[in-house]
Structure formats: structure tokens, C-alpha cells
Amino acid sequence: MKRVLMYGVAVAFVACFVLASPASAQTVVRESTCTETVGSNVMTYDCGFNVKDYVLGAPVTFNLNWTCTGACGPVLSFGMRGKGFSPDGVAGHMVGGKRLASGLSLTFVFDSLKTTGSGATGNAHFKMNVNVDDGSGQMKAETCNFDVHLNE
Fold it and tell me: What is the per-residue pLDDT across 39-88, written as a single tens digit (0 to 9) for each?
């Protein structure tokens, strides 16, 4: 009897986990990089991302990385840029962020998307300020803009 009960509890636990997980989780793909030049230092960073297979209200987490020909980092600040979301009718909010050794990990949610003929679209607009050496040893805060696009 104990085995049957334990087996039933295990099946119920697995069933709850499977039902709570979405059938298709979104993927975030880097689609472009940008370059900023500060003195003789060149910083290249991820600046364009594309979300696929998104379920409205699900958190989107992605990592943005950079490299520099000189010294750069850390991230001094980050957040939404402008209205934060576009086009009109698209809304969302940031959930959190974490500084990485040479980058940033961000999580946000689309609360609403703009309906198109065959799907939905939405854009999230962010910025971060990174300390960058100008090549002479002087550190300067450089603003880097980046975007996340969704077209389904």
C-alpha cells in the first residue's frame, strides 16, 4: 500500500510539473552587435535580440556581452530607454537584472503586444552605461542602447 501511495504522489508531482511548464518556451537569439569608440578603445557589444515562440506574460531572460580592445566595465547602470516599449499598444515591465563579468543579464515581460494580420509584434528598448577606458587611462561612462524584437 505504501508503494502505491508513494507511486501516486510521484506521478502527481510529475504531472503538476509538466502541466505548469509551457509547451513551447521562448528563445532569445542575438541578431546584431554594435560598436562604440572611446578614444583609442573600441567596445563591441550585443545590441539586437529577437524573441521567438513567446507566450504573453512569460518572462524573457537574455544575456548581453561585450568585448573591448582596452579596459572596460563594469556596468554602472541599466534600464528602459524612452517609452520602453513600442509600437503604441505594446506594454511590459522589467523583472530584474544582474551584472556579469563582461556583460549583463536582464529579465522583462511583455504585458501586451500589438496584433498584426497574422500574429503579434513588440519591441523592448534598453540602455546601459559602462565604464570604458579612453586609451589614456581615463574611465568614461559610455551609454549603449540595445533592443529586443518580437514578431510572430
Answer: 999 999 999 999 999 999 999 999 999 999 999 989 999 999 999 999 99
> Considering its fold, how many domains does the chain have in total?
1
Q: Are 150 and 142 in contact (CB under 8 A)?
A: no
In sequence order, which residues have a C-beta less than 8 Å from that of residue 92 and are 6 or more positions away? 84, 85, 108, 109, 110, 111, 112, 122, 124
Instruction: Judge whether 14 lies within some domain.
Output: no
Phi/psi for 6 (5° steps) reads -65, -40
Range of the domain at 122: 25-151
> The pTM is what?
0.81
The x, y and z cell numbers of residue 13, run together, are: 508531482
Joined grid coordinates for residue 26 = 521562448
Distance CA 127, CA 81 (A): 6
Q: Any idea what the CATH number is for the domain that residue 98 is in?
A: 2.60.40
Confirm whether 50 is domain-assigned.
yes
Residue 29 region, left (φ>0) first, then alpha (ψ -120 to 50), else beta?
Answer: beta
